[in-house]
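Q: what does this look like with dinuclear copper ion bound?
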Amino acid sequence: MAAETDALFYFILYTAIFFFVLIVSLALYFTIKYRVKPGESAAPDPTAPTHNPLLEASWIVIPTILVMVVFGWGFHGFLKSSIVPANALQIKVTGQKWFWGFDYAEGASTVNEMVAPVDTPIKLLMSSKDVIHSFFVPAFRLKHDVLPNRYRIGWFQATQPGTYDLYCAEFCGSKHSQMIGKVRIVSEREYKEWLDEASDLGKGLTPAEFGRKLFTNKACNTCHTLDGTPSNGPSLKGVFGHDVKLASGATLKADENYIRKSILDPASDVVAGYQPIMPTFQGLLKDKELDALVAFIQTLGVSK
Ligand code: CUA
């Protein structure tokens, strides 16, 4: 799709440059050639022609043809980008303040990194959990608004393995500029291997080890540090088992249920000094994953 999009873009660009140079040069040339010379009258010459049907027809017909070419070409590309091939592989895309979630039919789910096989049509089933976001991968010439309460559908077929930038292209709040990710295109074989592993993340790990993996995987680390430094959210070092002062003025002890509630319903007990900006992970975490995160955060509590 990129080749056709670019070809049309350059066609419009070079056509515009050609006519710009032609018209501006002729205008300058005639301005100088037909200027009023010393000793001549500035009054209009009554014998000069008043119109020219051929010239007038040409500046209507030529631009009309150009516009029709651009329309036909653009419409062809639009149809191509709108009609998803029947054999496409589906990935569910979720936009949420301020990250991208990807869910695969096999059970794998990732945050801010989409992995897909090369030379395979990929169908994107996109929706938002909150406000309007826009899924933008410049290298694929792919940009779709992602709306709450409905699905948007798009597709692409990557022709080269590599890592491509993903942006949110719709202003969606204070961290809009940080809503970025990667699209990693790999070979068919690497994709299968990745999918097998990603679909069974906790295999062979203790709950706390699995929780540590999820902490990065679910992008918790973008707002919570583990070394005591405050970030967008409080650091999780030394929280578990200790008293937490809330924005409401109350104090409570950070136990298993407090951690669980803070993940699923983050706005309920906000820590004093922080904004209620954390998104809910309700529906994004399986029970086993929630248990693992609680177990991991538990291990951070003893260090205080
Ligand atoms: Cu999401 Cu900007």
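Helices lie at 2-33, 53-82, 188-198, 207-217, 256-264, 287-301. The two ends are 55 Å apart (CA to CA).
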